[in-house]
Specification:
Elements lengths: L1 H86 L11 H9 L5 E5 L4 E5 L5 H7 L5 H20 L5 E6 L2 E7 L3 H22 L7 E4 L6 E4 L8 H14 L3 E5 L3 E7 L3 H67 L4 H26 L4 E4 H12 L7 E6 L5 E4 L1 H18 L4 E10 L2 E8 L27 H12 L3 E8 L3 E9 L2
Parallel strand pairs: 10-12
Antiparallel strand pairs: 1-2, 1-4, 3-4, 5-6, 5-8, 7-8, 9-11, 12-13, 13-15, 14-15
Helix pairs in contact: 1-2, 1-5, 1-7, 7-8, 9-10, 10-11
Length: 518
């Protein structure tokens, strides 16, 4: 019992140490993962701040662009007023000075203007970046009039496009003759628009090429439309992106970006794939270590069991060999005593003990060399061992047997008797040589069950799984080999089963031996 109990204590101590080691390792690993995750989120936040700065730059460009456009509109209004003053010159008498309005008109060197009369005829143009020379190159065979008409048609189409962007101005030059002044943004404004578009494109490229940082999605919260994302997926359906959006929102709070004319968009971002893999790495690591330890344990356990089998076989052979010599001598002495006319009753009892020793020797020799099974009536084997044990146990134990006839099973008679004898002796010890001991046999398809029930002190629940282990014993001087031999004989030699069917403290215990039928 001490050997087994010490082994169990060592197992428990090693298990607790292993759990503490695993817990400490997981704690350290999780701390590392948390720090990496915090730094990654910090980098993502810094990246988002940089995007915000870029958005602010775009907004600043838009504001500057709006101010310049308003300034150009005022310049056009002033330019139109100056034109009106000049147009009055033909209707007024006197020598008015038009130097100032003329200077205003001459100062317009950057705002392109097209003048169209009320009959949609081109009356003039200013600050255009092309002229009739372009059309001459394209159509060298056209006449001057055809080139002029083609140029006017182009100006009309261009004026219609400009009307969509900026308001036009219409003035009455002469009575019944109206001129419409249509203007476009100056080259400076167009340059600013190009710079703004480059910033926006750069912003979009930063989102798309952000594969090494974290997965991101720029979403319009009003429409739910995904504006930009660096998530590569063959599934372009909205359900996929909605699901990913919900997953990202659960991990990190989205960042609000005020972009393009004050419209607010939400930037969702997730942890990087490397961080997710790092989170599961400690568990994968310990699973692999656990599998390695389990495989190692199975291999070494197999080797240990093989060594135990060799020890069992060697011990059994040596025991049978050592018993053989004194048995031969005892048999000779009995024959001598019989020849000398000693009381036949004494020599008869001595012969019974010698026969018993021969049977024990036979059992050990069979364990050591392997037992052969023969088909026979196992109920007869059980009766024989019960009849043998009845006169050799306390008369305070009520020993009963309930067994059917002719139950055929492949078994080794000597070893089965040993099994029943061991269990019955343990039962008598548990009852302290006082109580009831009942052996019963039942048959079911393919099996015969031998139940041995005692009225002893019972087995505690925590010992039910360990009573068949070598070294387990409740006796102070016990070796803990009896039930281990029982399991070896039943399981290994007879391909059967042995277990505790039921046990209650201070009520009793029932062992069940199951042997396959022939």
């Amino acid at each position: 019992m001490n050997l087994y109990s010490n082994k169990q204590k060592w197992k428990i101590a090693l298990l607790i140490f292993a759990l503490l080691l695993v817990g400490a390792s997981l704690f350290v690993s999780n701390q590392i993962v948390s720090k990496v995750g915090a730094r990654e989120k910090e980098r993502a936040t810094q990246w988002a701040d940089a995007i915000k700065k870029k958005v602010e730059l775009v907004q600043l460009t838009n504001n500057t662009f709006s101010k310049l456009r308003d300034n150009e509109r005022r310049k056009m209004e002033l330019w139109i007023e100056a034109t009106k003053e000049i147009s009055k010159a033909t209707n007024l008498s006197g020598n008015q000075n038009y130097d100032f309005p003329l200077s205003i008109i001459q100062e317009n060197t950057d705002i392109p203007v097209i003048v169209v009369d009320n009959e949609r005829m081109i009356s003039g143009s200013r600050n255009l970046d092309f002229d009739t020379s372009i059309f001459r190159q394209q159509h060298p065979d056209y006449t001057k009039q055809q080139i002029s008409e083609l140029f006017d048609d182009s100006l009309l189409a261009l004026s219609d496009a400009w009307r969509q962007k900026n308001p036009s101005f219409t003035i009455e030059v002469f009575e019944g003759l109206f001129m419409t002044y249509i203007y476009n943004d100056s080259k400076e404004i167009e340059r600013l628009e190009s710079d703004r578009d480059s910033l926006i494109e750069s912003f979009n490229e930063d989102l798309i090429k952000n594969n090494e940082l974290v997965p991101v999605m720029l979403v319009n919260p009003k429409t739910g439309k995904v504006l930009k994302t660096n998530i590569e997926s063959k599934d372009k359906e909205s359900d996929f992106f909605n699901k990913r959006m919900a997953e990202m929102k659960a991990v990190n709070k989205p960042i609000t970006l005020d972009f393009q004319g004050g419209e607010k968009n939400l930037l969702y971002y997730d942890n990087s794939p490397e961080l997710k893999q790092l989170q599961y790495f400690p568990y994968i690591q310990f699973i692999l270590i656990g599998l390695f330890a389990l495989i190692g344990y199975i291999i070494f356990s197999t080797f240990r069991k093989a060594e135990q089998n060799q020890v069992w076989a060697g011990m059994a052979k040596e025991t049978a060999h050592q018993l053989g010599t004194p048995l031969s001598s005892l048999m000779a002495w009995v024959q001598l005593l019989e020849a000398q006319g000693i009381d036949p009753m004494a020599t008869s009892e001595m012969q019974k003990d010698i026969n018993r020793l021969e049977k024990v020797t036979d059992r050990f020799s069979k364990i050591g060399s392997g037992a052969s099974l023969k088909s026979g009536d196992i109920s007869t084997t059980v009766r024989n061992v019960v009849e043998y044990l009845k006169p050799r146990i306390s008369n305070k134990v009520e020993f009963t047997l309930d067994a059917p006839e002719n139950v055929m099973a492949n078994h080794n008679e000597s070893l089965i008797e040993w099994v029943i004898e061991n269990i019955c002796k343990n039962a008598v010890d548990a009852m302290e040589a006082q109580g009831t001991l009942h052996v019963s046999m039942t048959t079911v398809p393919e099996w015969v069950h031998i139940d041995i029930t005692d009225s002893g002190k019972g087995i505690p629940p925590h010992q039910l799984k360990t009573i068949f282990q070598p070294g387990f014993s409740t006796k102070k001087r016990g070796w803990g080999l009896g039930l281990s031999l029982v399991r070896r004989i039943v399981n290994d030699y007879h391909k059967g089963k042995v277990h505790v069917l039921s046990s209650q403290i201070d009520v009793g215990t029932t062992f069940r031996i199951s042997i396959p039928l022939s």
